[in-house]
Please model this.
Amino acid sequence: MLSETGLLIPCGPFCVRIRSRLPGLAKELRLLYRDFPVLGEDTFVDFEVQLRSPNLLRKFFRPQISLDCDGRIPFKPLPLTQAFPMLEWGLNWVISSHAHDHLAIHGAVVERNGQCLILAADPGSGKSTLCAALVHDGWRLLSDELTLVRLEDGLVQPIVRPISLKNQSIGVVRALGNEIVLGKVCHDTAKGSIAHVRPPLQSVLSMEQRALPTLLVFPRYRNGASLHSVPEGKAQALLEMTRHTFNFPVLAGAGFEALGRLIDQVRAYRIEYSSFDQVIPEIDRLWLNSP
Amino acid sequence: MKPRATTHLLVDTLRVPEIAFSYGVREWEALVWQSRSAELMAQLYVALDKADVLAAAPAAARRHLTIAKTIADKHTAAIESELIALREALEPLGMPVVLLKGAAYCGLQHHASLGRLFNDIDIMVPKHALAAAEERLLWAGWLPSHTSAYDQRYYRNWMHEIPPLEHKHRATVLDVHHTILPPTSGIKPDPKDLFEASIPLSGNLSFFRVLGRADMVIHSACHLFFGEFHKGLRDLHDLHLLLSDFGAEEQFWRDLVARANALNLALPLLDALTQCNRLYHTQVPARVFADLGRLGTSPYPTFLRNWLFEHALRPVHTSAFGWTTWLAHRAVFVRSHWLRMPLPLLLYHLTYKVFFTK
Model:
């Protein structure tokens, strides 16, 4: 099916058709997207994404794959073994470079009781790892990579997809319990080793439910650090978020206003930690101490 | 099931937006994909909006089109502020600065700039003033983006522009030209003529000039038909709008033919007019075709030429794309290099690009 009609998957505010003849890709998709709904024939397909060999030579000699989205090729080809991570990066690219009726923030977002917590940080700060731990702890996953805030009403649009883990995080999250389902570990990518976690069934089932942002945390994992949690001022939080918002230059004035409204709406904190045992209770405390 | 090949869906809809009333979800989908890959989505929005067809579009399609229009409007606003910055940098030099292509349409507030995306800004300055202009631009934050010694030499010795500059804060790309064609192409229009025929803009952009009407059309035609066709449909759409506007005056066509003859560029202009007429049904007087046909003759058989342009001018999307389109794009790529440089230089350039670039 993947090679002929393609596979339709809901991808946040979009529906994407994936096409590929690559062996192994279907297996990984079946494992990680198991609980996703099968979309009907009459669904409007927003984007078509294809994964294939960049040319005949690279099909056989040091095989590579290339990702094509509606005739555009956003990345350079990668070795064949990195097909699945490439697909996930490609989908992130599709969303963040087209969902311009949203703020596209580089951040994880989880929900409880209709309200959500945004984790925004530079790569390598442990954002996805913390997100996976919170989701394991009962929070609903909205997204581990891209927080989409609708310009219209300030609500966060879920993009339920597998959580992407890097290097040591893979072991850390695996150790959380047997109920965590991990895809194949893919070594030697540009970001080191990568593995994806299957999103929980409950998060998949409620992928249409948007949530109101109320808490913003800038997390930073530092080996051996003791817990350090401080409130962050509105101005500083706004400045930092302009850096994490992918489409800020595109949205210009409308983006600035939307980000301003978001910052007004949330309480912001900066947390440094070295273990889940420190950080999760602290987040729970901040969550419950809502004014 | 592979979607039906809908080769002309996009151009047909741009031309007669009302036909979209009969479209089902599959056609609207293909329309969104094709206009996205051709960078014509906001222009499509403008056409559909004008014909009141937008309300008939599925919500998802309307959403993409509306976002595209919003983004395009931001591009226009950004270009305007970039032009002000450029004026501040270049005004003290007291030399003419001509805006080319998109920036020119924008400066003229021509409807060819409506919904257009701007990947870069193209300007032309007199060759003797290049060094001074480059220095002023450097001080204003426009830094060279191609820094390898080979690229520098390639642009400076052989091309009609200096290596592209990129603004260190705003990342906007600026191409500074000193003429309209690579000197290595063998056709050397005298830039002095182009500057002399150029027209000053009005209002707060009065510092800038744009090419004369005939030159503007000829330049856009050359840019497309001497280059590659990635944005072929878009560039042709620009030309269609320019021609539909300028062509209302009989004098324009006479100037156009005379100018193409003087610049030795009748053939690319003929190609442009033929393709505009074929795809967008641009009104061109029969006499103009006849005159240009006499002036610019092609060494290749007509059927080959027709086949090449017909296939290369399709949206680069699977719904309109087959292996013949792929072949045509390859052929056009080779052709663009062939037209740009004499064979020994071409061989040297390709050898370098294949073996010595990382």
